[in-house]
Amino acid sequence: MYYMQIEVLEPNLHKLKAQLRTVKTIDDVMLHHSNFLDECLKQCLLTDQNLFKVISSINMRTLFFSRVIIRFFNNVKDEETLDRVRNGGDDQNNADFYDELTEYGQTPYSELNKL
To answer: Can you give the residue ranges of every domain in the chain?
Structure first.
């Protein structure tokens, strides 16, 4: 995401803005905008469908993981509960947490192996 935003979108946006300052017709605007979109897609590696699927999958798994971690720490409010989790306690919320993690299964690294 950092690469896409900082290394691709931002420089191309500055280039587009500079080009738009010199346009004379709406056709020029459309041409520059189309070139901007094409260049961003190419540089973000979004033109290859297989690679796009892998990147999307990694993004979804990362989002899922962050939500699970947030949910986990919202449920673990004190040290006693944390100790029960570490020791495999029978708290239903914690059981749901572990079930959700194991059900999801794969890590983002398994997607990289597909390349």
So the answer is: 2-43, 49-113
User: Smallest Cα–Cα separation from 72: which of 91, 58, 59, 87?
Assistant: 91
Kindly give the confidence (pLDDT) of every residue in the chain, 115 residues in length, as a single tens digit, with 9 standing for 90 and above: 788 888 999 999 999 999 999 999 999 999 999 999 999 999 988 888 888 888 888 888 888 888 888 777 776 666 666 666 666 655 555 555 555 555 555 554 555 555 5
User: What SS3 class is residue 81?
Assistant: helix
| 65 half-sphere exposure, CB direction, 13 A CA radius | 10
How far is Cα 19 from Cα 27, in angstroms, rounded to an integer?
13
- Structure tokens of 105? 């299964």
Instruction: Give the span between the Cα atoms of 102 and 5, in whole angstroms.
Output: 32
